[in-house]
Batch of 2 targets.
Target 1
Amino acid sequence: PPSACGSCQAGLMKNCTRLYADTLAFYRRELSGPVFTAGWAFAGIVVLGFAFSLLSPTRADAVIAYYAQMLGQSGVADEGGNIQFFALLMNNLVAMALSLVYGLIPFLRLPALTLGTNGAILGLFAGYYMRQNISLLKYLLGILPHGIFELTALILSAAMGLYLCSTVTNALRKKQTGVLRPALHRCCQILYLWVLPLLFIAALVETYITPILFNLV
């Protein structure tokens, strides 16, 4: 009956609102600090990558060539170089999920590697564009429209991984029990409710809008 459908929709909306409110409260309580740290660290690595690209162009170009080869083998782009939406979305989602998995390994802080690698690549490419006398405007047009969403998801995922790593490490040191499961549960909720939509929007922009902006300049 229509009344039953209306009740189901109202109940679903209420549950979604509650879930988003709970994850937002968890973010403010536990993740805001790691996200702030990860964001500044990411920005610093971008600057270092840019400087390295200018000071050591031969090595920087070797890294860029290796990255381009890996990208070509990832299946994200077809033979014509066109980005494939679903492949891109899944590739990015797997990368973000791995940040959480890496966070379950204590002491090593492996999620920082994902953050550092992506930051370094962005800086290296910016330096490459400058060395080739290509306008940085074109570079920014190729990065920022989808990067606003994708880089937010990256920093958030890396921060969650670092948070989980700290949680696991502290639990082992203090011999605590029952602290990992709720933390992991909340992080998985954020991955589903916040990171996935950000990646979905980023993939749409990168697949369909970024090429148009590129052609404009």
Target 2
Amino acid sequence: IRDCSIITDMSSSVSMTIDNVLSSSFCESGVATTINVVVSLLCVNGISKGVFEVLPEKFKNLPIYDYGDALIFPGMIDMHVHAPQFAFRGTSMDLELMDWLNRYTFPEEEKYEDLKYAKKAYDMFVKALKESATTRSVIFATRHRYATELLMELMEASGLISYVGKVNMDREASDNLTEKNADVSAYTTFGWINAVKDKFTRTKPILTPRFIPCCTDKLMEELREIQMAYGIPVQSHLSESKGEIDFVKFLRPKNSFYGDSYNEYDLFGKNDDIGVDVKTVMAHCVWSTDEEVELMHKNGVFVAHCPASNMNLTSGIAPIRKYLDLGLNVGLGSDVAGGHSLSIFRAITDAIQVSKMYFRMVNENYKPLVFSESFYLATKGGGEFFGKVGSFEDGYDFDAIVLNDNVLSHPQTLNLAERMERAVYLGLDEKNLTAKFVAGTKVL
């Protein structure tokens, strides 16, 4: 987008006026079509009012922010990230999942009992997230109540929008990391939710059983009671690696498949049989069976696709084309520190690349993702978990990032689609993020 201007006032009314823009409308993924016209992208009170060739008269007196020759994208959505793991990202990426958890993840997370350490580490995480292209995220903390509340305070102050979960786990980790028993885990979770549920505007709690190997049957039963009492969303991990799946089969032999272990406790999306509607996101879903996929689709479970993590930890390649063809809800996750970068731009490109490998090496019936589809997953696909988010269409929350791509020299003339793709592949989110808006508020 060339010669763009962003209009804002103190009431968080925002508009963008674009001269010589290569766009007059946005397709479903938020990617612009290529037409040489002057258009305006308008936001009022934090809500996008759409794209106009002629700015409506009643909005023409809004003040203007002028960013010159810049690109404006919808904000990126990180559907799965571990805040305490940010401290050791990029470490021992040659290990597989279960070994990596036991040797690095669990020992690091033990440290968050110490609030001074938690403050130091979480300050770094929140600062990096704020300076990234991510505007909304779904976050794992640790099992420590007060460190989780601290993280939520920092996220609220950042201006970003997030769900943050205090992790529940009462087995299969060190004594310093697991909670004493299911009752203690449930008690501290009740206390945490009561303390934070009405405290923040932009930061909300999400129920977080770490994954089935770390949660006893009794704990899962108590988490069901908590979810039904408060009606909050759920996040966890699902079918990430073959070793993990085998372990779940050993622990819960009566369940037909991994996801059934969550569904038994009504923590796996909506359950029409009992009238419970539980907004749920499951990370990975690399090895989900047809039965599991069918249940995810029926229950409206979101898949957080984390391609970097799946490569780093030798988990496999999730069949995202299959999921999209079947109509599943899919977004992208960085999965730091299984993934080594907070960049959702990197996740966009990784998702395309691993889909090509799946097509060539696993099943040629599932065509690789194209750029616009992967961009959609990073914006509107994951954004649906938050509501009407991830697009500049009329009525959507106004999340936007402004990028200066003038640093990318090129001898040829590029259209908008080409500029967008280059900006993502060449990592401009980590180098040239000019401004950032979340629900109409300028946070950078």
